[in-house]
Specification:
Number of strands of chain A: 9
Helix content of chain A: 40-55%
Radius of gyration of chain B: 19 Å
Oligomer: heterodimer
Largest sheet of chain B: 5 strands, mixed
Number of strands of chain B: 14
Shape of chain A: globular
Strand order of the largest sheet of chain B: 9-11-10-13-14
Distance between the termini of chain B: 45 Å
Strand order of the largest sheet of chain A: 1-8-9-5-4-2-3
Strand content of chain A: 5-15%
CATH class of the largest domain in chain A: Alpha Beta
Shape of chain B: globular
Largest interface: A-B, 42 and 46 residues
Helix content of chain B: 25-40%
CATH class of the largest domain in chain B: Alpha Beta
Structural class of chain B: alpha/beta
Bound molecules: thiamine diphosphate, magnesium ion
Number of domains of chain A: 2
Radius of gyration of chain A: 22 Å
Distance between the termini of chain A: 83 Å
Largest sheet of chain A: 7 strands, parallel
Structural class of chain A: alpha/beta
CATH superfamily of the largest domain in chain B: Thiamin diphosphate (ThDP)-binding fold, Pyr/PP domains
């Protein structure tokens, strides 16, 4: 018998709709309604400006360490667009854009990254999970949500966002396998931004595209231009539709680039060249999208300035609200461990409060 | 009232939980078609089908992580780890999500889940099949660590944990006594408060404190001490090691003035350390002798040909008890 090719029934496709100058492929353009396109643009800009504002606040000591997402706005906004409020969304720690879209308020995100658990108060009216700091560990959880949807019936879907570095974690492989076995309605959004802190993609793994990971576990997989918001929207819509039809999970590799430091605590100059960053500047997702919107006559420079000014005002108001809210009842650190606090913990809480009161009395 | 072994009692609790609440789903390796390697899930796949009794791939982190998602959705998952020695493959899910989700979400998302698994030695098993590491989970904020000691309390505690306790429970099943003896188990579902110890034998001169599989040698020692030496021994079955019922322990030691704590888990930072600390904090003035701990040693669980001297037996308990009594 001769050797043959074994057909696994899956191939990796690559999707990009806007070219680098912002011209759309007419046949692939998802033809989104004008209001939607403008809303997408506003949220991409808001995401970027919030990032800038937070970096500033961090430098002034008003914000803890956080992970900026400049350059990745199209992945966020394109992928969240097809989700309905009753769908489940599980963000990474760099998912501000999608979270804002889902209704997380700016002051809440500020609160969270300023070090208060209250910032995790999930928004009402959507099924969102809190972000997870332990890389990849939230991905099996998303599959459990998907399995529950299958169990209860209905056409909800789950979108879970994680990075290229996360793809190396065992949890992600276990999750992909589970999702494929149970046909869980999960969209695995792997945001390949080129780096996991200092480790470049080429040192992270031996595959050419992370979409191979999805294929390897037996699910349709797509490699998408992550700086092209239309491609992200179209690819995610396709995956969401498939999940709603109960045809199971999809893996999307969104190829993008992290324009800033990993977090406000590191210096990317140590591990990558300015030249590499400059190359990606030319593919800026907001710039490309704006070119597209202008070419369709939906937006002009004056319009962009107006949106930007509105966002600045929104950020200012949110920052004031955040400052007012950042006063925590100190005993809350005890209050959410159990539905009913065990007596042994209640005793510790009394001890904690007594110590605190004494410290206050002594003016410490 | 049927007479059931512990394994059958657990099976009955799972059966009842599945029939009483359609949010309950079981998941684990070989729990469906094979009915569990210890046959704990016998008959359940046939009765409830593969959507509720889920045979999973061999992937512990995804079993526990998946259960986290199910609990977040509003189901009441009951994942099984085939042996407690394999739970480390999923420990990070427990530490990262199971124990923290309620706090992280300010109470919005609770984890109504019971993670069941057999624990403990004495079954001549290969490496990683005999450990007692309840202290790890007792040490983890947000968790509840329950260990039954017989068929009746196993059934009641498991049913309570699944149906009436909205927080995550690590449920250790003493596999050594899965089939060791039978007890009458009431026909009607029975519930027990979580976090409450039981005084299973009353006495005035010495308190023995234990839980799980070591309740048997503990009770045997109490009987011998009473019959052979005329000592009046009180015995406490903790049932839950986190939270720990300080009140019951303290009340007993205040009465007897003497205590021995018994468990198979390692001594250093073991459950006994916590029990002793609480006695010292709350009843030092009543102590008439130092407290003794009869526990597993701080060594890797011996390979099975040498496991017997590591295990707890009535002689070791009596030896320690006499030292305390004669102090
Ligand atoms: C399990 C685990 N290991 C290490 C870390 C520290 N850490 C935080 S972010 C990060 C890199 C993650 O890279 P990637 O998944 O590509 O996401 P990105 O930060 O690029 O968005 C590392 C190593 C962690 N949070 N969790
Ligand atoms: Mg990355």
């Amino acid at each position: 018998m001769p050797r043959k090719t074994f057909d696994i029934g899956l191939v990796v496709e690559e999707l990009s709709i806007l070219d680098e100058s912002g011209r759309a492929d007419a046949a692939l353009d998802p033809k989104l309604p004008e209001a939607t396109l403008l809303k997408m643009h506003r949220f991409m800009l808001l995401t970027r400006k919030l990032d800038e504002r937070m970096i500033m606040m961090q430098r002034q000591g008003q914000m803890g360490t956080f992970a900026p997402g400049r350059g990745q706005e199209a992945v966020q906004i394109g992928s969240i667009l097809p989700l309905r409020s009753e769908d489940w969304y599980s963000p990474s720690y760099r998912s501000f854009g999608a979270q804002l879209w889902r209704g997380w308020t700016i002051d809440q995100l500020l609160l969270l990254w300023a070090g208060y658990f209250e910032g995790f108060g999930l928004p009402e009216g959507v099924n969102d999970m809190p972000m997870s700091i332990v890389i990849g560990s939230h991905v099996p959880v998303a599959v459990g949500l998907g399995m529950s949807i299958n169990y209860r019936g209905g056409d909800q879907v789950v979108l879970v966002n994680f990075g290229d570095g996360a793809s190396s974690e065992g949890d992600v492989s276990e999750a992909l396998n589970f999702a494929a076995v149970y046909k869980a309605p999960v969209i695995f959004l792997c945001e390949n931004n080129g780096y996991a802190i200092s480790v470049p993609f080429q040192k992270q793994c031996g595959v050419r595209s992370l979409a191979q990971r999805g294929i390897g576990f037996g699910m349709p997989s797509l490699r998408v231009d992550g700086n092209d918001v239309l491609a992200m929207a179209a690819a995610t819509q396709e995956a969401v539709d498939r999940a709603r039809r109960h045809e199971g999970p999809t893996f999307i590799e969104a190829v993008t680039f992290r324009m800033e430091m990993h977090t406000t605590a590191d210096d990317p100059k140590v591990y990558r060249s300015d030249e590499e960053v400059r190359r990606w500047e030319k593919k800026d997702p907001i710039m490309r999208f704006e070119t597209y919107l202008k070419s369709r006559g939906l937006l002009n420079d004056a319009g962009i300035d107006r949106v930007a000014a509105e966002i600045e005002e929104e950020l200012r108001v949110a920052r004031d609200r955040f400052a007012a809210r950042a006063v925590q009842r100190p005993e809350e650190v005890f209050d959410f461990h159990y539905a009913v606090m065990p007596e042994e913990l209640a005793a510790q809480k009394r001890e904690y409060l007594a110590d605190l009161q004494q410290a206050l009395a002594e003016g410490k | 009232m049927p007479e059931l072994t512990l394994v059958k009692a657990v099976n009955r609790a799972l059966d009842e939980a599945l029939s009483l609440d359609d949010a309950v789903v079981l998941l684990g390796q070989d729990i469906g078609q094979d009915e569990g390697v210890f046959r704990v899930t016998e008959g359940l796949l046939k009765k409830y089908g593969p959507n509720r009794v889920i045979d999973t791939p061999l992937a512990e982190a995804a079993i526990i992580g998946g259960a986290v998602g199910m609990a977040a959705y509003g189901l009441k998952p009951v994942p099984e780890m085939q042996f407690s020695g394999f739970f480390y493959q999923a420990y990070h899910q427990v530490e990262n999500h199971v124990s923290r989700m309620r706090n992280r979400t300010r109470g919005r998302i609770g984890m109504n889940m019971v993670i069941r698994m057999p624990y403990g030695g004495g079954i001549r098993a290969v490496e990683h099949h005999s450990e007692s590491r309840e202290a790890i989970y007792a040490h983890t904020p947000g968790l509840t660590m329950v260990i039954p000691s017989g068929p009746r309390n196993a059934r009641a505690l498991l049913l309570t944990s699944i149906l009436k306790y909205p927080d995550p429970v690590i449920f250790f099943e003493p596999k050594l006594i899965y089939r060791a003896f039978k007890e009458n188990v009431p026909d009607e579902p029975e519930f027990l408060p979580i976090g409450k110890a039981q005084v299973v034998r009353e006495g005035t001169q010495l308190t023995l404190i234990s839980y799980g599989a070591t309740m048997r040698p503990t009770l045997e020692a109490a009987r011998d001490l009473a019959e052979d030496d005329g000592v009046s021994v009180e015995v406490i079955d903790l049932l839950s090691v986190a939270p720990l019922d300080t009140e019951t322990i303290t009340a007993s030691v205040r009465k007897t003035g003497r205590a021995v704590v018994i468990h198979e888990g390692h001594r250093r930072c073991g459950i006994g350390s916590e029990v002793v600390a609480r006695i010292v904090e709350n009843a030092l003035d009543c102590l008439e002798a130092p407290i003794k701990r009869v526990t597993g040693y701080d060594i890797i669980f011996p390979y099975f040909s040498r496991e017997a001297p590591y295990l707890i037996n009535a002689e070791r308990v009596k030896h320690a008890a006499k030292e305390v009594l004669e102090y």
